[in-house]
Amino acid sequence: MSETERPSLSLGENTRLVRAGYNPFDHHGFINPPVVHASTVLFPDAETMAKHGQKYTYATRGTPTSDALTDAINELEGATGTVLVPSGLAAVTVALLAYLSPGDHALIVDSVYGNVRHFCDTMLVRFGVQVEYYDPAIGSEIEKMFRPNTRLVHLEAPGSNTFEMQDVPAIAAVARRHEAVVTMDNTWATPLFFKPLDFGVDVSIQASTKYPAGHADILLGSISANERTWKRLKQANGALGFCAAPDDIYQVLRGLRTMGVRLERHQSSALAIAEWLEAQAEVEQVLYPALPSFAGHSLWARDFKGASGILSFVLSTAGEESARRKSHAFLDGLTLFGLGYSWGGFQSLALEVDLSDRTVLAKSYGGPLIRLQVGLEDVNDLINDLKRAFEAAKGA
Known about the structure:
Layout: H1 13-19, H2 46-51, H3 64-77, E1 81-85, H4 88-99, E2 105-109, H5 114-126, E3 130-134, E4 150-156, H6 168-177, E5 181-185, H7 190-193, E6 203-207, E7 221-225, H8 227-240, H9 246-256, H10 259-278, E8 283-287, H11 297-303, E9 310-315, H12 320-332, E10 338-339, E11 349-352, E12 369-373, H13 379-394
Parallel strand pairs: 2-3, 2-4, 4-5, 5-6, 10-11
Antiparallel strand pairs: 1-7, 6-7, 8-9, 9-12, 11-12
Keywords: Lyase, Pyridoxal phosphate
Family: Belongs to the trans-sulfuration enzymes family.
Organism: Rhizobium grahamii
């Protein structure tokens, strides 16, 4: 057996990231795969065309470029199959559309990404799906919320912006007893820090825009399914016609090769900043699962192998009237942390979180909630930037 053919299951995560999904000697030894720009694929004869008797038939159904990335993700996720779509939001919505029909009941975690909630409350409801939100801390008690028509449970752990943890195996076990599909947005952890399919989840969703791409310049999402749910996902995605662009796929695959070492830096810097924030008089509370003080820390420590670079904290204010003024002064006082949405790239970012759309969890933490994406800058420089911003907030 040659070196390139050796099984990779016993290799370390960074080694697997470097090698996964592509054999250079399939393409004359070039380390990176070719970028195939295509729509039409030619057939050698009419019979092959009539029977779809070749690997590639049309570019929406796959190319050598997309196969390189999906094969890599399948290996990392332990999935039967993966489809690529143009954004992380599309990855969640395509998964929900794949398994839900009019009259079905769906349980959605209340800490879900806000744009997914908007999709559920508008498109899914419009299509006749009954949507109900649940507390992320519910665990096995979620069984009390099941109805005869409950067909899907959607998880996001940690939750958006406030990072609530979920007892994933307990929820998945309940859903399995009721023959419901379990989908999970695992963008925060990536399959390096948590593998949903190993904990009973059927469909693992990633916004590849974030850590896999890693450079704030690509939009892409992946949906990875186990054997039980793969066929239906593949059929739904084919019917919807979603596919990712070849150059974006190539950029994500290239980013994937360094994701492990980048996550190590994101994690170490975020933990250092979270610990520093806890000691600041201007901070009421820090929300980061890797902190022992965090409510869901024990679940995180039980199931997860690491923590990524995104966290939130509650800014102390004298009262409601000063909250907006102080939060804006804090954000405007930052110079290294850019003000922008998304996360997972190399630059640190900050924004104020809006929780007004929640229906189960608290809508307020008693002060402005600031979310930080901790990037790859030197951590001492980032802490000094935060110090200056706190000083600016004091004078507001």
